[in-house]
Amino acid sequence: VTHGPSRRRRVRIGLAVFAALALLTAVEYAGASIAGQPMLIVAPSAVLKALLITWFFMHIKELVGEDALAEGTTDDGDT
Amino acid sequence: MAAVIDHPGLHDDLPAARRLETNRLGLWLFIASETFLFSAVIAARFYLLGFETDEALNQPLGLLITSILLLSSLTAYLAEAFAATDDQRGFRRFTSATIVLGSVFVVGVAFEWAEAFDHFPPQTLFGTVFFTLTGLHAFHVVTGVIALGTIRWTGRDGRYGPDAHWPVEAVVKYWHFVDVIWVFVYPTLYLLR
To answer: N or C: less crowded end of chain B, CB within 10 Å?
Structure first.
């Protein structure tokens, strides 16, 4: 018995979020090197990265009314 | 309080889902309190220095340890995913990977500190900010590594599965929180000027 999304789906989400985090970090680094106002690039990028982590990795949505145990209680079957 | 003392089994009567909700709320409140702590220190950086930074900062090393910590968030996420789907080998493997990556991050910070002592020692204004922020964060990374080691050890016999992996979830959430903090500490120290 498993609760929540299947393992394959979780792995896909994890890899996609990590790819986005890596890309944003590269943008931050490059942007800070060449931009006259790094804040304009770095701040939105950092906020976006934090949102990605808190939403997909920390499951903050469980705080906003969604039943924690019910988050996709249907199993995709490929665990 | 007396009621709790008189009824030691009170929490056992709570449905499992309710207990899990309460546990999660408690953890999120703890995370919120920690967020205030780091926010204050980051605010102090800008209050004291504005956007001033030190050119001696090792930018490649900063980027490297940032990448390592982001990667550790992925492995921590996968450790939780594998525990939740009852893959014990995957859980142990990715928990161990997260411990290794967290330890490498701490070693990277130690290297950065060794350089920083030469260029901007703690007595300087930037040194004060740098050592306070990185030190406070590194302390949290170390406690996270210890917590990960604990669930790796207690989970060696396969006790964490789909119906019982709250300790894994809690530790992994804490680890992600440590990562989120670095997401702001890194640009605050290294990139903004």
So the answer is: N
The pLDDT tens digits of the residues spanning A27-64 come to 999 988 887 778 889 999 999 999 999 999 999 887 77
Q: Are A28 and A45 in contact (CB under 8 A)?
A: yes
0.90 exceeded by pTM: no
Q: In the numeric block, which tokens belong to residue A8?
A: 């394959």
Per-residue b or e along A31-69, where b marks 16 or more CB atoms closer than 10 Å to that residue's CB: bbeeeeebeebbeebbebbbebbbebbbbbebeeeeebe
**β-strand partners of B107:** none
Host H or E run for residue B130: helix B125-154
Binary contact (B81, A10; C-beta < 8 A):
yes
What is the ipTM, given to two decimal places?
A: 0.88
Which chain A residues contact residue B176 at CB under 8 A?
53-54, 57-58
Show which of residues 56-75 on chain B sit within 8 Å of chain A, judged by CB atoms.
59, 63, 66-67, 70-71, 73-74
> Which residues numbered 30-59 in A keep a CB inside 8 Å of some CB on B?
32, 38-39, 42-43, 45-46, 49-50, 53-54, 56-59
Let me know: does B79 contact B170? Beta carbons within 8 Å. Answer: no
Exposure b/e, B40-74, CB count within 10 A at least 16 = b: ebbeebeeebeeebbeebbeeebbbbbbbbbbbbb
Burial of B147 (0-12, 13-18, 19+ CB in 10 A): middle
How close is the nearest chain B Cα to the Cα of A6, in Å? 7
